[in-house]
Specification:
With 161 residues, this protein is of the alpha+beta class. It is 22% helix and 32% strand.
Length: 161
């Protein structure tokens, strides 16, 4: 058992570890040291819920250029070198068949989509679902002045994105 003087220190360390586990992080999609934002493209790896999961799917980036795009649910955005990239996006959507046959139907009907896009330095991009026959996913270019708070789920609502 720890003496009373050591307990606050252990409690502080445990609390910091817990908070670090909940923190949103970014993904560096290139090797080497971090570069300035002006030399990179920033891609938000999730979409906000605009209606509900029954009528409009949520999107989560699964892979970028064949590599896992960070930790799903914790990684908020990616820093990428300008140029061509391949993206794989997963869907978060509930339909009637999900209620009938669960995960198997979800795996069949909500298969991840793969698409290619070109990104430019200094620009920010968002995932966008195109409600067409194919359920196309694209990157929407938000330009160079996009509010960085809109990249993080916890700050998204406060920033009025």
């Amino acid at each position: 058992m720890l003496p009373k003087s050591g307990r606050p220190r252990v409690l502080t360390v445990a609390l910091l570890a817990l908070l670090a586990g909940c923190a949103e992080i970014s993904y560096q999609g290139y090797s080497g040291t971090p570069r300035p934002d002006s030399e990179l493209a920033i891609v938000r790896l999730w979409t906000p819920t605009t209606t509900n999961v029954f009528s409009s799917p949520g999107l989560l980036m699964k892979e970028i250029d064949g590599h896992a795009a960070g930790e799903v649910g914790r990684t908020s955005h990616a820093y990428l070198l300008p140029g061509d990239h391949e993206f794989q996006v997963g869907f978060i959507q509930v339909r009637a068949y999900n209620l009938l046959c669960g995960a198997l139907c979800d795996a069949i009907f909500n298969k991840p989509r793969t698409f290619k896009a070109t990104v430019e330095a200094g620009h920010t991009y968002l995932l966008k679902y195109v409600d067409d026959e194919k359920g196309t996913v694209v990157l929407e270019d938000k330009g160079t002045k996009y509010d960085p708070r809109c990249l993080k789920a916890r700050e998204f609502r406060e920033a009025k994105c």
